[in-house]
# Entry
Amino acid sequence: MDVLVIYDSFYGNTLRVAELYQQVFADKGISVEVKHVSKIEPEDVKNKKLLIFGSPTRAFRETPGIRKLLTKKAMPLTNRLVFVFDTRIDPDDTNSAILKRFVKWFGYACDHMEKQLKKRGAHLVSKGIGYHVMSAEGPLKQDVSMKVNQHVAELINHLHS
Ligand SMILES: Cc1cc2nc3c(=O)[nH]c(=O)nc-3n(C[C@H](O)[C@H](O)[C@H](O)COP(=O)(O)O)c2cc1C
# Structure
């Protein structure tokens, strides 16, 4: 199975999650390529069985780089199997009631990536996942590695069912 993780990252946390995906898939005998969004060409995407998009949540959505890629006409996304994840702050870690309300209204990078991918005719293998960072610059919360293990196992099950 050919899997490509397309990621964007400012402080390295989303890259770290992408690499965890790569490692966990590899443990199960599946090789995964991890590539920064700025380096993706339509050719890279063409022959992959599964495309995974990872973005930090910034201002309640995906990064401009990921958004640009998902709206690029030349990117062959129709009928492709896709999955998304993001990194984000846990609203329970902040004392801001207004932030909690904004999150409810505007969501996370995952929501916008999924919406755009559906619009492009891609097929979501399963619901996108958000991984928590301790603060804007990270690090990732301790449970992230365990969660990625679990989510990759679920993804593989979905792909084989
Ligand atoms: C300018 C800015 C805006 C952010 N907006 C959000 C947001 O709307 N929701 C959220 O949960 N986290 C937000 N964060 C926290 C980011 O999600 C966090 O920096 C990111 O997960 C780190 O990933 P990275 O190291 O891959 O860039 C924001 C951080 C910055 C610096």
